[in-house]
Amino acid sequence: MTPDGTTRRPGDGNHPDGSPLHTALALAAVGVPVLPLRRGKVPFGNCRACKGNACGGRPTMKSAGPCRCPAPCHAWAAATTDPHALNSIQWEAAWRHAAAVAYHPGGAGVTVVDLDDAAAIAWARATLPATRTVPTTRGEHWIYRGVMPSANAVRPGVDIKSLMAYARWLGSGTGVMAALPDSVRALAVKEPSTARRAPQSLSAPLTGQGGACPHRTPTFLARGITMAEQRITNARTAVHTTVYRTFLAVLSTHGRCGCLTNTHMERLFTAAQVKGETLRHCTDAWTNARTTLGL
């Protein structure tokens, strides 16, 4: 059974011979994006051409598109379900020296709450809904169905691994997977500081807001998100630019008062990915829009 807990998928992803490559191929065959890890549970470094992100990354807002390097570069972004890539000569050396297999939780449609010690496990049992669990060296992975931004050290001994992150594959675990709860999403939300909420913290004031919440009713925000989704969906050319400008417009209107949630962001990301944008591009576009507005 793979990270999403569906029983229609085979076993625990491990091949009888136990090699990292065969485990990776079994997982990839059922739609779980995988990558090799070297000793220390870390990804293999970028190749010479991609070192220091000289290639532009996978991708960045400044690049025309994702890096096409065939090697297992760029950490979590190297995760793939393509058996030809996994079996390619460019990946051969990595598999030969691989100590373990990792997967991209966000790409598999799940979120991993990484509990690093007994105290963190005790906190989770008292606080979070029960779900599928996987034992780790020192703690447990609690796996929920759904994706969200990843975040480290959300509390002592607790990391969240989902979008733009990787988790070590340690088997399918036990228990029934629950939907990603708001209590987990809330762990990654940082309260904005007073300085950031003040109008003078922006490079230019946002028209009509003046530091106060402009949403007299929930309908205003809901309509804005729907219109933004439609703008992305209707794009026929310059999708990269449309996504960025749409994110910028949404954040300029709704981004200062704290009403935007991860659910709103995921709706916009989903619309962009349906148009062919990568998760990395969506994340970079969102971050760049926030930076432009001083958020």
Task: Give a verbal description of the structure.
Strands 4, 5, 6, 7, 8 and 10 form a 6-stranded mixed beta sheet that branches. The chain has helices spanning 20-29, 83-86, 89-97, 118-127, 182-185, 194-197, 218-233, 239-254, 262-274, 279-293, and strands spanning 34-38, 42-43, 100-103, 110-115, 132-135, 140-145, 151-155, 158-161, 167-168, 178-179. The protein has 10 helices and 10 strands. It has 295 residues and is α+β, with helices and mostly antiparallel strands. Residues 7-16, 59-65 and 191-211 have low confidence and may be disordered.
Key features of this structure:
six-stranded mixed β-sheet; 10 helices; 295 residues; four-stranded antiparallel β-sheet; globular; alpha+beta
What summary fits the major beta sheet? 6 strands, mixed
Quote the beta fraction.
5-15%
Structural class: alpha+beta
> What is the subunit arrangement here?
single chain
What is the share of helical residues? 25-40%
Mean pLDDT: 80
Distance between the termini: 41 Å
- Alpha plus pi helix count: 10
Element-by-element helix/strand order: HEEHHEEHEEEEEEHHHHHH
Structural shape? globular
Compute the CA-based radius of gyration.
20 Å
Q: How many β-strands, per DSSP? A: 10
Which residues sit in consecutive blocks of at least 5 with pLDDT less than 50?
A: 7-16, 59-65, 191-211
Q: What is the compact description of this entry?
A:
The chain has 295 residues and is an alpha+beta fold. It has ten helices and ten strands.
